[in-house]
Fold this protein.
Amino acid sequence: MSKHLRKLYLELIIISIILLFSFLIFSKYDVLEKIVGLSSKYEKYEIDEIISTLIVFAICMAWFSFRRWRETLTTITILEKKNIEVVSSLEAIKILEGVIPICMHCKEIRDEDGAWNQLEKYISEHSEAKFSHGICGKCKEKHYPEAGD
């Protein structure tokens, strides 16, 4: 489980505990009845509207919290996907590094198992490089003198 997901679940647990605690307090002291009694005592201040306003406010806050929680989950999912893409991209990158043993005459390369491989084969297997063959001017003169220019 990711760090962000654990944080979200912790917040949900804390909210649940606060709700349970407030329910226990409100049920023991009958807070709603005291508010109704207070509102009838001070009718001229229209305190009875506070109850409906607080209910609407609580519903709005619950809706806002739910949207933020869903948005955070979506963001976490996107970040996890991007993280997987980056990790797989890094795994796919092949880099030739270090000392590569190469024969000074035939230019074959010795691999990790001690076998000698053609230069093109070794580099193709250990990197993303591809080869296209041609012939340089010096080799053309040396091996194919009859071909001319």
Summary: The chain has two domains: 3-92, 109-147. The chain is about 65% helix and 5% strand.
